[in-house]
Amino acid sequence: MKAKHQRLVLVAIALVALVCAGLLAAWALRSQASYFYVPEQIAADPPEAGRAVRLGGMVEEGSIRTLPDGVTTAFVVGDGKARVPVRFAGILPDLFVEGSGVVAEGRLNIDGTFVADNLLAKHDENYVPRELREMTEHQKREVVAETEQGA
């Protein structure tokens, strides 16, 4: 076999291997994708039960309650058009409060309850770190100036 033919065969084998590796990676990752839903979308076209998804919306006022086991928290996520009951067993994020934004990662049960494995609390654009809340405007400016000088 001539050297030219050998190189052509090697290039063809490398291309086939590269395409196969890409297809294998895409097939393996398809089940790992976590789609984002808002309550209105879940009400209109819910994902199949047990599929990993993310639910985003606002924690409704007066909906947070701790269940008798002392670890599980139940609350309702809404978007003004629909509501989805959520259960979460674990430690709640510091920013998790009624009326705040939340992204829950988990699965929808057959009964329509979203069982969250993880909660991500969102803050609004007026967020102020806990350390700066009780400072005067003058103290805040001094802290910012000190931080900028140290950088």
Automatic annotation (TrEMBL):
Pfam families listed in its UniProt record: CcmE
Extracellular compartment segments: 29-151
Compartment(s): Cell membrane; Membrane
Cytoplasmic side: 1-7
UniProt-annotated binding residues for heme: 123, 127
InterPro entries: CcmE, CcmE-like_sf, NA-bd_OB-fold
The entry's keywords: Cell membrane, Cytochrome c-type biogenesis, Heme, Iron, Membrane, Metal-binding, Signal-anchor, Transmembrane, Transmembrane helix
Keyword presence, Nucleus: no
Database matches in NCBIfam families: PRK13254.1-1, PRK13254.1-5
Family to which this protein belongs: Belongs to the CcmE/CycJ family.
Biological role: Heme chaperone required for the biogenesis of c-type cytochromes. Transiently binds heme delivered by CcmC and transfers the heme to apo-cytochromes in a process facilitated by CcmF and CcmH.
Name assigned to this protein: Cytochrome c-type biogenesis protein CcmE
Biological classification of the source: Bacteria, Pseudomonadati, Pseudomonadota, Alphaproteobacteria, Sphingomonadales
